[in-house]
Specification:
With 297 residues, the chain is an alpha/beta fold. It is built from 9 helices and 8 strands.
Length: 297
């Protein structure tokens, strides 16, 4: 066997392990201070993004895809480990660069602050494409639970950017190229969904605003292609949230794939210890590959 082929698995493992041992440093989304911030020193007032660049693997083609990760937490906290850093490392193993966003939260902050943080995060990822080595037109968003709601907000309430903006980041589109939604909040369906809407909008929010952010009601043909996963026994964020978004995508003619597992509950992340549920990430990798977001070798 060719010596280079014999060494390839070792080189692959070493490169990925080296990348994973490093702790990336978060950077502020707005270096001069976030608009609408209620403080300057606390990370909770200044949203930040943590880059996890894809490692360069000898013999492997460059994927040139990036993903913005939005951890969940009912819009009151952020699950930055199993819905953040672990996800970024999983993407790195596929050759995908990942960027974890720590956005501002309720009840201190309400809409549209969270949406504007996510839009800025996506624009920031696009603006750094040349630096990290991916295509600015190959940027997806992966959100979990309330982060899934925020991701679907990007997919249904995006804008093309402001060409006259002084900040070049703000000139870029906030439309994702694809969505990955894991047990996402979509409407106030389920106790955790209702709590997420309360944190996002405040108690007793205007019904018109609740309707505006029930994102399955705002799917159009321009909504990005989407992969969804949820569990049938999720009592916190009912699986109808995912089903309704999937049906809206189908009605609009948007390519979509959905997987509902019988057992899993809520907040399972990548489910690495569940022999059945953990298979969902292989289905996601297949979907990414079939749709051209991964390299072919």
């Amino acid at each position: 066997m060719n010596l280079r082929l014999q060494l390839l698995p070792i080189l692959l493992f070493a490169a990925v392990a080296s990348a994973q041992q490093q702790t990336p440093a978060p950077v502020p989304l707005w270096p001069q201070g976030a608009p609408g911030a209620l403080g300057d020193a606390s990370p909770g007032d200044q949203p930040r993004i943590t880059p996890f660049p894809a490692p360069k693997i000898p013999g492997r083609a460059t994927t040139r895809t990036a993903v913005l990760i939005l951890p969940g937490g009912s819009y009151s906290h952020l699950a930055t480990d199993h819905e953040g850093a672990q996800v970024a490392k999983w993407l790195n193993n596929l050759g995908v660069s990942a960027f974890m966003l720590e956005y501002r939260l309720g009840p201190r902050y309400h809409h549209p602050i969270e949406m504007n943080d996510a839009k800025r995060g996506l624009r920031w990822v696009r603006s750094h494409a040349a630096e990290y080595g991916y295509d600015p037109n190959r940027v997806g968003v992966w959100g979990f639970s309330a982060g899934g709601h925020l991701a679907s907000t990007l997919g249904t309430h995006f804008d093309s950017g402001d060409p006259a903006a002084a900040d070049p980041v703000d000139r870029l589109s906030s439309r994702p190229d694809f969505l990955v939604l894991a047990y996402p909040v979509m409407d106030p369906l389920g106790p955790a969904s209702a709590n997420s809407f309360d944190n996002l909008l405040g108690k007793n929010a205007d019904p018109a605003l609740v309707e505006e952010l029930s994102n399955d009601h705002h799917v159009t043909a321009q909504t990005p292609m989407t992969f969804l996963v949820a569990a049938d026994d999720d009592k916190a964020v009912l699986p109808e949230n995912s089903v309704n978004f999937y049906l809206a995508l189908r009605k609009a003619g948007v390519p979509a794939e959905m997987h509902l597992y019988l057992h899993g509950g809520h907040g399972f992340g990548l489910a690495p210890l569940d022999p059945v549920l953990s298979s969902w990430t292989a289905r996601l990798a297949d979907w990414l590959r079939v749709n051209g977001w991964l390299a072919t070798n």
